[in-house]
Fold:
Amino acid sequence: MTADPEDHRNPYVARERILRTAYELFSRRGIRAVGVDEVIERSSVAKATLYRHFRTKNDLVIAFLERRQQVWTRDMVRDESERRGSTPDEQLLAMFDVLDEWIHSDDFDRCTFINVLLEMGPDHPVSRAAIDCLEELRGIVKERAEKAGLHRTEEFALSWHILMKGSIIAAYEGDGEAARRAKIMAADLIEQHRTPDGPERVPAGSKAGGS
Amino acid sequence: MTADPEDHRNPYVARERILRTAYELFSRRGIRAVGVDEVIERSSVAKATLYRHFRTKNDLVIAFLERRQQVWTRDMVRDESERRGSTPDEQLLAMFDVLDEWIHSDDFDRCTFINVLLEMGPDHPVSRAAIDCLEELRGIVKERAEKAGLHRTEEFALSWHILMKGSIIAAYEGDGEAARRAKIMAADLIEQHRTPDGPERVPAGSKAGGS
DNA sequence: CATAGAACAGACAAGTCTGTCTACTCTCGC
DNA sequence: GCGAGAGTAGACAGACTTGTCTGTTCTATG
Structure:
């Protein structure tokens, strides 16, 4: 709508082209592994232009994370799974179908937010932005859990998130079935949270003992 | 046994001191973020000494991964959980108790193998070493599953691994209860695999549909 | 046509990184 | 006492990093 990235006359175009290239490169290869020079060259832009639109590389990374949040978390995971299920339960489980498709698509690159978190360390400002992104995803899960009438939704969302993150890493490691495996566990998790009673039926050794 | 790291006269000492420092730094801050100069300075060693013992930084990283495999995967996760349970089931579940303790200890740094994998990309030789390490962990899980008389142990181990990886990442992100959450799901997973029937009771939308 | 704003091209500074190399010192065994 | 082997100290090369800065060219608008 705003800009045809080929139209060099449009002033909005340079920024968009930079961001698109950055998205492509950062999401596939990580942050540290991609230098601004490469972004500049691949987006056919002058260095000064990049630094006019983004004060530092960090600013560019933050902008990239925002776009990732829109494209991945919202447009893909949230909206696509919502479209595929008619009840909150189905919509929750459909998230893993979406992940499964993503994993097998050409777009499957790497888990950006986790990657940033590990690459920059937990205290880096960019990492904090990544953590916010992950939190939004959990919010979506929690909301659906509430609509589905589940109990202990906060804990539910955290457990659910473990399954999502774990399956994405497993897929990255080479397990093509990871999302389907996680979905099975996710279905059980839903059942566990249909009742209000806590998970106090955990087998032996719940609390880690001393020496 | 081999060496007192303070004894500068012992020829085995320099290598050990370098490796110890590398372990400390790499496991806490990642690979790319730590340069050889820092390793050299922190281990009070000359640059030539480091490069005498390790041909390149990559070689040092590989040696670090081997040590990590011993210290983390084998000594900690495998042996410690074995000690804590008397049956294979208990030993499996105790893995999450060990993780829980680790997460809350000062030693909790980051998930080294996943970190390397993401940092270097899946095709890097160092990443392949990391994948081998992760595979060994799954082998331990599979073996215990067989001893416990579970079915479809290969798939069981892969699912189990999703829970482990997911909970470690979640803990890194800030969820201190991640290992305990994962343990609950793990207990359910064991129950699922007590019977030989496949997981074909997955709810609606198992196969992701088209557009 | 003229001028302002933006983009382009690319040199440059200042720092990082890995890996090499020289020159000196220390200690052990002969 | 002396030579060998290992360690120390640190300069250095060459590549890479982010970010600045100087010009030039293009385009839209008055």
Summary: Residues 57-84 of chain A form the longest helix (28 residues). The mean pLDDT of chain A is 90. The two ends of chain A are 64 Å apart (CA to CA).
